[in-house]
Amino acid sequence: MELENFTVLTEKCHKGKPASCTWACPFNLDVRALVEKAEKGKWQAAYKAYRTAVMFPAIVSALCSEKCKEHCQRAQTGDGAIDVRRIEEACVANAKNRKPDAYALPPKNEKIAIIGAGIAGLSCALSLAQKKYEVTVFEKESGWGGALRGHESFESFDEDIALQFSAVEARFEFGAELGTPSELRIPNGSGTPSELHSPSEHRSLSLPQGFDAIYIATGENGEDFGLLETFDENLLTTAHPGVFLGGALTGANAMQGIVQGIKASKIIEAYVQTGKPLEEFTEKEASPRYLQHKDAEHATPIVPASGDRYTEEEAKAEAARCFKCDCNECMEACEMLGTFRKTPEKIAIEAYTDLKATPPYSTHTLTRQAYSCNMCGRCKAVCPEGIDIGEILRMSREARLESGAYPEAMHDFWLREMDISTGEASFYTAPNSKADCRYVFFPGCKLGASNPAHVLLSYDFLLEKYDAGIFAHCCGAPAYWAGDKERAERNTAVIIETWKALGEPIFVFACAACMNAFEALQPEISRISLYELMAADGIDASETGAGWTDASGTGADETGASGTGADGTDESRISSGRTGAEPAEGEYNVFAPCNSRGNDEMETAVRRLAARAGARVVELPEKNLCCGSGGHMRAANPGLYDKITGKRAAMGDLPYIAYCANCKEVFGARGKECTHILDIVFNLPQSRVPAIHEKRENAIYVKRELMKKIQGADYAPDQREWESIEIIASEDLLAEIDRKLISLDDVKEAIWLAETTGDKLVDEESGACRCSMEKPVITYWVSYKVAGGAYELIDAYYHRMKFSREGV
Amino acid sequence: MWKCNACNEPLVVMKTQFSYMDRSFTHEVERCPKCGKVNIPLELAEGRMAEVEEQLEDK
């Protein structure tokens, strides 16, 4: 799918589209809007809307055939359909002012003849008269109403007709017998009557002259002037240009006749304005739209307490039963969509127009929203039609990047992280000096970066049980989410090449996000979750974890700072489960990540592993919500990021079990107690969230340890000159710069540059120094003081715009 | 009072050219009168500059 086909992307969307009752209504009445007004007792407004749709409210509310009931979605809950007709009656009865509006339009010159003052002819006449056409109604009887004249309620119908015509000018010719010469044989220019020759019967019939169009609605078995045979029931045309048919003459009942009269007015107007008949007339969509109301509460239909009509209160109560069927599923389910309040249709249109906008002279309207999406797939999951708004927004990001007019800063942080995981932290090998393998562990960038033990102990298990290889690399999600197609394709090429080099093994994933990214970017590679293999094999923490602490040469870390490098040493990066950490007994909420939606095998396996370790799992009210990190929207919309992560952290009172490294990191940063399923499996102590620079160190540590164990190699990344700089800063300040997504690495590099070149500012009074470092996308600033051989950090910040040193 | 370390000159407020999202504009900030080194304090970077960046990203 391309953005160019934007209308296709959301054409099935229900939002703002007619409800099924409206679809069923011959008048296309906006029942939803009418009932909303009625529920609030806004009878005048409800009446006006009703009058506009049906022309003759008293007649229609009495005679309506109630097609809406057959399509009322209230029936889904087993309750009776909404009694819209009685609510309509209440609108008529309770409106304080039923006088029709007089439209301030200029009079039109075109003259229209209506033959037949039955309800079909009257509705056409009224519609055209409202538009200020000069309308003359010819009727052989002595008054209007046609077949309704014999109805028991004709007195009120008569009153309604008189009321509705009271605000327009229309001429009525009653007692006019068609075919008699006196009134209707209006001479044409040559002085002879106009004769209409029926093509079938070859008889001459007389029609009124001097009119630009004629609508014939003479009732059941009425005079058709020989035109019925050539009648087009969609366009209401006949063989005679400018002469149209409708009403019971063409088989319509009273309600259909009114609808047809309104339709005829539109067709006639188009004819007299253009001089030619319409070629097509589209009335409504092919099928009604239904929503899911399965969770709705029951509501018993309201029955009038006395008589056949609702009291005002009864009508309001019945109106309150209506679902007002308008789909809000995605807007209610997604904080982002709920914040921006744009309909899916509008989003698709804006994604397209943004694509066509040419900077700097055009205005993009979707930028903030496009880059605020978590890409979690929830919109698609809740949509009755499966519309994927996230994919539209991702395509918008792609289109913006291709056009060159895109905010690079919104994804720079994660693309720089990707540089690390595809560069100095990337590594692959088959096990035990083999050339290939059946399984390869793909831990992804986050797992080892947040806790090396998760990768190393899991790999132990996979090596032992499945003779698996390892491939430490990035799945491509950061590039995919950034809309950087070229970069994602380059990454895919590396992954495919490695996959082939290893003999096309099955990839084993610990993060659902990687698994999903593979499905999108490298679908040809077979995938399975680590947890499935662990659950199937009955892993026992006591049997695993051997070797790693020995490999670091120090034994277990007693501090429990596993995986974080808390003291900056390799020894503190890993501790095995045999160090006496508390077992996982107790109650937990499982936070199922957005990326495991539909991955039943992974979800089941995680719960089995938790149960096996003694954890009692209590499910959260909802599953598969994004923790907030998805789509890398944090830099684009930090406020929304805080809102989403805060809501997710508050979903459950118990400590969470996460099985996505991103979720673990998000909740850890918010202070929500959260343990990774691998902590439970391996009986590891709680670990804190590593700082940005520590994640890089952890990722490199994982690579070094793996290379040492599997290949006996000694990996030493290039030493960067600023790494040895000592920074003095409070925990709060370090946390603050991390929150700003500034790595201590960048802080050190900036200081090192300033100190080695002398390119800095100094404040002699306070002794403070300030320097800047311009990276391709972000410019970093650091304020600090020289403290002996170390540097005391004052603050660090950044901006996205560039400045020039020229012009001095 | 900030001074340029390399030039040993006190900074003075000068017009400076900024650019972002294919647009250029000028703003007065403290600079070294000799080498042009710019001083952007935290309040400016996280205040007005961030606001302008957001406005330009949204266009």
List the helices and strands and how they pair.
The complex is a heterodimer of chains A (808) and B (59).
Chain A: H1 6-10, H2 20-24, H3 31-39, H4 43-54, H5 57-63, H6 84-94, E1 111-115, H7 119-130, E2 134-139, H8 154-165, E3 171-174, H9 181-184, E4 195-197, E5 204-206, E6 213-216, E7 243-245, H10 254-274, H11 312-321, H12 329-333, H13 335-340, H14 344-356, H15 367-370, H16 378-382, H17 389-403, H18 409-422, E8 427-429, E9 439-442, H19 444-450, H20 452-466, E10 469-472, H21 477-482, H22 485-501, E11 506-509, H23 512-521, E12 527-529, H24 530-537, H25 548-552, E13 586-591, H26 600-612, E14 615-619, H27 638-649, E15 656-658, H28 661-670, E16 674-676, H29 677-681, H30 692-711, E17 727-728, H31 731-739, H32 744-757, E18 761-763, E19 768-774, E20 779-787, E21 790-799, E22 802-803
Parallel strand pairs in A: 1-2, 1-6, 2-3, 6-7, 9-10, 9-11, 11-12, 13-14, 13-15, 15-16, 17-21
Antiparallel strand pairs in A: 4-5, 8-10, 18-19, 19-20, 20-21
Helix pairs in contact in A: 3-4, 3-6, 3-11, 4-6, 5-6, 6-11, 7-10, 14-17, 19-20, 19-30, 20-24, 20-30, 24-26
Chain B: E1 2-4, E2 9-10, E3 12-20, E4 23-31, E5 38-39, H1 42-57
Antiparallel strand pairs in B: 1-2, 3-4, 4-5
How does this structure look, described?
- The complex is a heterodimer of chains A (808) and B (59).
- In chain A, 40% of the residues lie in helices and 12% in strands.
- With 808 residues, chain A is of the alpha/beta class.
- In chain A, strands 3-2-1-6-7 form a five-stranded parallel β-sheet, with helices on one face.
- In chain A, strand 2, helix 8 and strand 3 form a beta-alpha-beta unit.
- In chain A, 49% of the residues are buried.
- Chain B is an alpha+beta fold and 59 residues long.
- The longest helix of chain B is centred in the last third of the chain and has 16 residues.
- Helix content of chain B is 27%, strand content 42%.
- Chain B has one helix and five strands.
- Chain B is elongated.
- The chains are: A alpha/beta (808), B alpha+beta (59).
- The interface between A and B is large, with 36 and 40 residues.
